[in-house]
User: Which sequence fits this backbone?
């Protein structure tokens, strides 16, 4: 394993890849600090750029952008009180209060330190548990994989929205869009309405850019028009004292461990992990009454949990091919476009790429700490660019992203339609992530379903006769009812609502 | 019509639309020719049939959802009982703006103009060409966002169009169309 990892470092530390990682971290953080534009929209916009790159370099770019935008998200939570994405919602509770008390600097510094510790821990864990999980998953047949994907879709559906029915509708819609095009097994044209452009199916990038980037532009434009954009607090000197660091360290360590364990769960891992880690912190820490009033542990803990969960979400993505949320779903789509299908065989078939990716994550984490600490005030200035100049430019670059896929006017029309639908869904609380995940997983889900039915000669009982498949399907159903049980917690409800609003 | 009733009506319309879409989807599924179907193996219809049925069931649920009916009943009974209005309980999913039909649908001129500019850009860009379409989009969008100083609007739009066009076309080799400017270039 260490030999593989060293080989990974040899590739990750090549000057070109190092430069790409640095550029990815910078671009990710820069876009991540723009209020509203989270990791998912950032990754969706950048995907067309990675086509021409070698797979390892493309992966390094995507992960560094992902990590960078997660860092950027915490900066907006603290300084603007707008979480970059749902996982940063908890950070706003103490983080923005600290900023309002004139302590934005320590809040940003502890977010960077906590994220670095948690990120490094999660990459270490990925190094050790990734390959064994992948080996275990090799025992899975089509029925188990079908059940696993249903489980993944159900966890995302149950944890990303406020209403399970709406989440299921969103998931189904994604799966239905995935069935458009030529059926690869029989050659039948399905739902193409005679349009040759639809025969290749609907590209997920087209829908993702429409639903994330386009709607974000319009929603921001509405906020600018209505004058509801939030105030930005100036950061000042980004530094913390030794005593503050020691005071925060237990919170960082607890957040890291809980974040990683919960983050491995396919679904809204990062969001749920910050919520659970923060609640546990309240129960086990000294002076819990200080949390929520601008306590530095209230930033250290969720930020560590958030970053540990982000790293952990790559475990099911790489070993099982199951993304944990919107951003990892977009990464999965990008990997599939590069002809790399994550799953149990990923470590065997594309071992060199996986170990390069893991090595580049170590490098990325270090680069982010080195970059973010001195440059946080520079990044914060990006937030001051008026949205009236920035948003039209984001729209133009998103359009180029779609156009460059296949130079098709139909793709642009579909992006517009996806944007309209995405806007309606976001305004009326239909979660968008399950749709994207359904669209990306749809093809593989159908393939596994049909293979399982071929084995069982058409009997659906195969899903109940295989123990692993049965357990996964039972867990999937249980997860659908989880929000009903968790609704008793006001904080969880707040997180869910922010998730659906964001 | 009270807020909860209006929200409930919207939910039911959504349910109806979802039901109709699922029926159309199932209709298209059944129209896939049978010769693609091999004996004793799941064919191209199997998975879409399953999806269509689940989607239709969800649409039907929204159409007749008892949770909605409960919200309506609460909204009706609360004012009658002289207690606080039930709107907050139902506000989550059922809030609807007041005013004329346009406003009730959540529409106003700014909203319609924003979408018209965005969709118009996506529709016309391939034919009109990237430089002209992008310049017009930037001018209109920036003005819709409240920038009314002509020299700023025109200067910024021209600069962004030029940087993005030449950067992507010649820097990253993205084939962006010249469109109506093609004769000038040639």
Assistant:
């Amino acid at each position: 394993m260490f030999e593989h990892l060293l080989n990974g470092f040899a590739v990750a530390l090549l000057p070109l890849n190092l430069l790409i990682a640095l550029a990815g971290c910078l671009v990710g953080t820069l876009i991540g600090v723009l209020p509203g534009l989270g990791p998912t929209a950032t990754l969706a916009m950048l995907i067309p750029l990675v086509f021409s790159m070698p797979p390892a370099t493309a992966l390094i770019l995507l992960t560094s952008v992902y990590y960078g935008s997660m860092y950027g998200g915490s900066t907006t939570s603290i300084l603007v009180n707008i979480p970059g994405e749902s996982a940063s919602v908890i950070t706003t509770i103490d983080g923005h209060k600290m900023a309002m008390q004139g302590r934005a600097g320590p809040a940003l510094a502890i977010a960077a330190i906590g994220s670095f510790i948690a990120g490094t821990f999660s990459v270490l864990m990925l190094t050790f548990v990734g390959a064994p999980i992948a080996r275990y998953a090799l025992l899975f047949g089509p029925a188990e994989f079908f059940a696993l994907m249903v489980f993944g879709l159900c966890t995302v559906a149950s944890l990303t929205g406020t209403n399970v029915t709406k989440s299921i509708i969103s998931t189904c819609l994604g799966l239905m869009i995935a069935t458009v095009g030529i059926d690869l097994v029989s050659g039948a044209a399905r739902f193409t309405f005679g349009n040759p452009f639809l025969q290749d199916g609907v590209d997920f990038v087209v829908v993702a850019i429409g639903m994330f980037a386009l709607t974000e532009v319009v929603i921001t434009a509405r906020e600018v028009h209505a004058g509801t954009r939030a105030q930005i607090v100036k950061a000042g000197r980004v530094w913390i004292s030794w005593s503050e660091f020691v005071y925060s360290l237990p919170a960082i360590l607890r957040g890291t461990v809980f974040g990683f364990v919960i983050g491995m769960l396919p679904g809204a891992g990062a969001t749920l992990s910050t919520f659970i880690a923060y609640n546990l912190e309240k129960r086990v820490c000294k002076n819990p009454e200080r949390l929520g009033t601008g306590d530095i542990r209230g930033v250290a803990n969720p930020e560590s949990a958030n970053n540990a969960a982000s790293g952990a979400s790559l475990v099911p993505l790489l070993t099982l091919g199951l993304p944990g949320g919107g951003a990892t779903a977009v990464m999965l789509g990008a990997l599939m476009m590069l002809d790399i299908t994550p799953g149990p065989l990923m470590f065997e078939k594309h071992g060199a790429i996986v170990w390069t990716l893991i090595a580049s994550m170590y490098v990325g984490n270090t680069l982010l700490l080195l970059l973010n600490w001195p440059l946080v005030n520079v990044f914060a200035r990006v937030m001051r660019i008026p949205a009236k100049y920035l948003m039209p430019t984001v729209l133009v670059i998103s359009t180029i992203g779609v156009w460059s896929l296949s130079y098709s006017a139909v793709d642009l029309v579909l992006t517009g339609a996806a944007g309209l639908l995405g806007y309606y869904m976001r305004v009326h609380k239909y979660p968008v992530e399950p749709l994207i995940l359904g669209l990306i997983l749809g093809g593989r889900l159908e393939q596994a379903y049909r293979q399982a039915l071929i084995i069982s000669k058409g009997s659906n009982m195969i899903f109940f006769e295989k123990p692993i498949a049965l357990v996964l399907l039972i867990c999937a159903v249980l997860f659908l009812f989880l929000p009903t049980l968790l609704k008793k917690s006001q904080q969880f409800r707040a997180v869910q609502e922010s998730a659906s609003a964001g | 019509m009270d807020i909860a009733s209006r929200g409930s009506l919207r939910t039911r319309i959504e349910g109806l639309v979802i039901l109709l879409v699922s029926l159309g989807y199932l209709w298209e599924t059944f129209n896939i020719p049978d010769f693609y179907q091999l004996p004793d193996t799941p064919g191209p219809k199997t998975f879409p049939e399953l999806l269509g049925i689940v989607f239709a069931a969800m649409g039907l649920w929204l159409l007749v959802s008892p949770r909605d009916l409960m919200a309506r009943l609460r909204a009706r009974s609360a004012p009658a009982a002289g207690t606080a209005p039930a709107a907050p309980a139902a506000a989550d999913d059922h809030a609807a703006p007041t005013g004329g039909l346009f406003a009730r649908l959540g529409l106003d001129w700014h909203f319609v103009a924003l979408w018209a500019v965005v969709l118009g850009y996506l529709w016309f860009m391939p034919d009109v060409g990237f430089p002209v379409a992008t310049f017009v989009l930037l001018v209109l969008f920036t003005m819709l966002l409240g920038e009314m100083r002509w020299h700023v609007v025109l200067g910024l739009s021209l600069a962004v169009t030029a940087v993005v066009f030449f950067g992507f076309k010649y820097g990253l080799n993205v084939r962006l169309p010249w469109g109506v400017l093609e004769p000038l270039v040639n």
In short: The first strand of chain A starts at residue 181 and ends at 182.
